[in-house]
Amino acid sequence: MTKGVQYTMVTLTLCWFLSHLLFFFVLSAMAGDVDLLISFKNSLPNPNLLSNWNRMHGVCQFQGITCKGNHVSSLTIQGLPLEADFNSVSAHILSLGNLETLSLSSTNIRGSISSLANCTMQLKKLDLSSNDLRGSVYDTASLAASCHSLQSLNLSNNYIGETFNHSSPVFSLLKVLDLSNNKITNNEDIQWLFSKLWLLTHLDLSNNTIKGTIPQITNCTSLQYLDLSSNQLIGTIPADTFSSCLNLTYLNISSNHFTGMAPPDIEACTNLVTLSLSKNNFSGEFPMWSLVAISRLQIVELAFNNFNGNLSKSISKLTSLELLDLSANKFSGPLLRPLCTYAISRLKVLYLQDNYFTGNIPNSLCNCTNLVSLDLSLNLLSGSIPNSLGSLSNLKDLIMWQNNLHGEIPAELSSLKSLENLLLDYNNLTGAIPNGLVNCTSLNWISLTSNQLTGSIPIWIARGPNTN
User: Fold this and answer.
1) Above 50 in pLDDT, residue 7?
2) Buried b (16+ CB within 10 A) or exposed e, 156-189
3) What domains can be seen in the chain, in order of their start residue?
4) Distances (CA, A) of 304 to 98, 130, 328
5) Which of 146, 138, 114 shows the shortest CA–CA distance to 126?
6) pLDDT value of position 303
7) DSSP code of 276?
8) CA end-to-end span of the chain, whole Å?
9) Cβ(279)–Cβ(254) under 8 Å?
10) Is the pLDDT of residue 356 over 70?
């Protein structure tokens, strides 16, 4: 036998050996995944909930399992009452060597998250929302740190909020953290989070009971989404609170008890898309001019505060604006004609109700060609309803009740095929109800009471689902 033939045979033998060795490792890994999953199933009070988790099926056919390269890469089960203990999840599911995503939302997982035993190095996304999990904010961060590659952690709708020793260090690569709808009360918890989880881009702490003043927000250069709404935060917002959060696109601090002027450094957040300050006790003139530098701003919510002053011309420069809610404040003066200066205005929702606006309704509103909902009720507006509003083909809500409007209901409103709600009651409108409104086939609620209308009530109104 020649050396060349011998070399070829050795090579073939080595390739055969390596291929079989690789096959053995793959089978061993798959068997390991199966063992862990079956062990988790057997730990449940009712294992039959996962009836097809058995060795008769390939692991990639197990309910909720997604594989990548013959390995379990994702496990998603939602709304199934597993009643599992977190220790079992930790010992079996989080130990799957190639698991990248785990979602066990609304599956009645219980226990303390402080008892973490193992966590695969591959896990990037963990969703344990809407369960019965308990622990502290520190336990949350420790869980994230134990899963070394974890980038997204959702523990919303649980019972996180126990006290802990803030001196304990932690490091995490976490970018997304959702702790909304929990039991967090300690103001120091948020301060600690901001100081430790400095890579966060998304932080949701809404619907807790966090007390005290707003903490100093440090290390927030990566932060893009911040929701502190529906807590019990009080006091004024100091200067420089948000000035270093230059990448914020979403800021929601609504439904708290903040007082004083609006956040003084909001114009520094030039990437904001959504700004919500509603349902607080802010007062004074809101600096609309400060928003002009925020060219991407789409949503501004200032409702249910004590802001006053006139409607600034600066609003007309917010060309990306889609929703403006100034309702339930103390704004006054006329509705400025430049409100919808640009014919390509993106504005879809305009809520100005429950203020002290005076004067006529400007014809320029017809330039808001994308307008879907317009509410000017509970003001001191006078004059007639502009005929030009009939050109707003996307309009669904036209609400102007409790003003001093007079004249007739414009027949042009009959062109609003999408109109669903027409509320014009408690004004001084005269004339007949336009028969053409019968063409508004989407109309669900029409209210015209307490006016000075004449003529008979059209038959089609009597057939309507909700009329007054």
Assistant:
1) no
2) bbbbbbbebeeeeebebebbbbbbbbbebbbbeb
3) 67-235 (3.80.10.10)
4) 50, 30, 5
5) 146
6) 98
7) E
8) 104
9) yes
10) yes
- What does 209-272 look like in DSSP terms, one character per residue? --EEEPPP--S-TT--EEE--SSEEEE---TTSSTT-TT-SEEE--SSEEEESSPTTGGG-TT-
Task: Write down the residue that tokens 């097809």 correspond to.
Answer: 52
Residue 41's H or E segment, with its range, is helix 3-42
Is the pLDDT higher at 165 or at 47?
47
How much is the pLDDT for 463?
62
Burial of 132 (0-12, 13-18, 19+ CB in 10 A): middle
Question: What average pLDDT does the chain have?
Answer: 88
Residue 2 has pLDDT above 80, yes or no: no
Better-scored residue on pLDDT, 256 or 57: 256
Phi-psi region of 69 (alpha: psi -120 to 50; beta: other; left: phi over 0): left
> Comparing C-alpha atoms, which of 412, 286, 300 is closest to residue 346?
300
Tokens of 406: 């007079």
Q: Does residue 136 contact residue 160 with C-beta atoms inside 8 Å?
A: yes
Question: In the beta sheet, which residues pair with residue 431?
Answer: 453
Euclidean distance between CA atoms 293 and 268, whole angstroms: 8
Six-digit token string for 262: 């609006």
Residue type, 338: P
Q: How far apart are CA 426 and CA 328, in angstroms?
A: 18
Residue 158 gets which letter from DSSP?
A: S
Q: At what angle do helices 187-196 and 137-146 cross, to 10 degrees?
A: 20
Q: Contact at 8 Å (CB) between 43 and 36?
A: no
**Tens digits of residue pLDDT in 364-410:** 898 889 999 999 999 999 999 999 999 999 999 999 999 999 999 99
Instruction: Provide mean pLDDT across the span 89-100.
Output: 93
Give the burial class of 429: count Cβ atoms within 10 A of its Cβ; 0-12 exposed, 13-18 middle, 19 or more buried.
buried
Share of the chain above pLDDT 70, in %: 89
Q: At 110, is the pLDDT very low, low, confident or very high (cuts 50, 70, 90)?
A: very high
> 442: burial class by Cβ within 10 Å (0-12, 13-18, 19+)?
exposed
Confidence (pTM):
0.89
Gap between the Cα atoms of 40 and 53, Å rounded: 10
Q: Are 346 and 321 contacting, i.e. CB atoms less than 8 angstroms apart?
A: yes
- Say if CB 58 and CB 37 are below 8 A apart: no
- Alpha carbon separation from 148 to 73, 96, 142, 179, 463 (Å, rounded): 16, 14, 10, 19, 64
